[in-house]
User: Fold this.
Amino acid sequence: MGITEPDAGEIRGIAVVPPGLEAPAAEELRALGCEAVAELRRAVRFRIDTAGFYRLHLQARLPFRLLRQLAAFPCRGRDELYAGVQQAADWSHWLPPARSFRVDASGTAPGLNHSHYSALQVKNALVDQQRRLWGQRSCVDLDDPDLSLHLHLGGGMASLSLDGSGGSLHRRGYRAAMGLAPLKENLAAGLIALTGWNGTVPLADPLCGSGTLLIEAARLVLGRAPALGPDGVRRFALERWPDFDPQLWDQEVRTAAALARSTLADGQPLAPMVGMEQDPAVLEQARSNATDAGVAPWLDLRLGDFRDFQPPAQPGVLVCNPPYGERIGETAELENLYADLGRMVKERCSGWSLWLLSGNPALTGALRMKASRRIPVSNGGIDCRWLHYTIR
Assistant:
C-alpha cells in the first residue's frame, strides 16, 4: 500500500486556518516551535514533538483545528481507501470497540466525490475490521466522540488524521455576548497580526461593535493564551487519546498560564486602546466580553458615534470592520457612512495607519482613499479584503 507513518516521537500536523491567513499562521507556528512549516490552501503543514503539539492547542491563536496525521497512503478509489484505512494504524490501540468515534472528510478521489460518502467508507472499513477481530464494533458519536478522525483526499493520496481540537479553536470562551455580525476570534487575531501592531503605539477601533478586534489584540500583547478563558482551561479531544500524557500537558498548561502579564514583554506599559460604539447595548456586550477575556482594564470603550471619535494624541493604528450592506435599501446609507469615515480619519488621524475589513468594494470607494495593501481574506464565507491605508 505504500503507507507512510510519522517517525517515533514526531507529530506531523495540519493547522486548518481561515482563508487568507496562511502566512501569519505559518509564522505563528514557527514561533511556537514547529519545523518543516509549509503553507497550503486554508491550512499549514508542520512537524513538532508531543509537548509542542500540546503547546499549539493552548497558545496558537489562528487555527480553527489542529490535526495529527496517523498515516498517508495512495488512494485512487474506494477499494484503496478501504484497505488503506485498515492498515493505517494499530486500531486496537486507537479505537477498541468500547470507544466511540466520528469521521469527517474533505477533498476528492475517483469515485469518492462526496465528503459524506468518503467518511462512510472510512467508518465501514473500521467497523468491519472490528467485527472481524472482536465480534463487536464502536458506536458513532457525532457530538462527543472519544476519537475524531479526519480524512483528506487529493493528488492520488489519502491522509488520515486525528482531530486534537474537538470544537473549533476560534471559540475562546469569553464571548457570550456578540453583536449582529460577529467576527470570529481567530480571524480577528490574524487580522491584528497582519497589521504588525505590537502594543507600543495606540490601537483604536471607531466602530468596535462587540470588541473582538481590540480584545484579541490586547490578549496577544498581554500574553493571554487563547485556551485559557474565564472558566479555566478549555477541554480538548486529545485529552482522550490513549497516548495522552497528563504530566506533559499540565507542564504546558502552567507554561501558557505563566505568559500572562499586565505590561508588554519588555515591561513597558501598553499604549492606549480605544473603541467606540454608538449602540449602548452593543457597547455593554463589548465591555462584558473584555471583562471575561481578562483585558478590560486596558480597553477604553466609549459610547458614541464614530463621527465624533477623538483619537489619542500619539499616532497609531486604526482597525475597523464596518458593515458591508447585504440587505436591499442599505447602500445609500452605508455610502454615507464610509464617506463620513474617510472624512473623519483624514481630518483627525494624520500620521495614523488604517486597516479596514471590506466585503464590498463599491462602499470602500466612498472613503476617497487609496489602499496601499489589499489582503484577500474570508469572513463567514464572504470574500473580503483587509485594506491598509496610510493617512497623510
About this structure: The longest strand covers residues 65-74. The domain at 11-163 is CATH 3.30.2130.30 (VC0802-like).
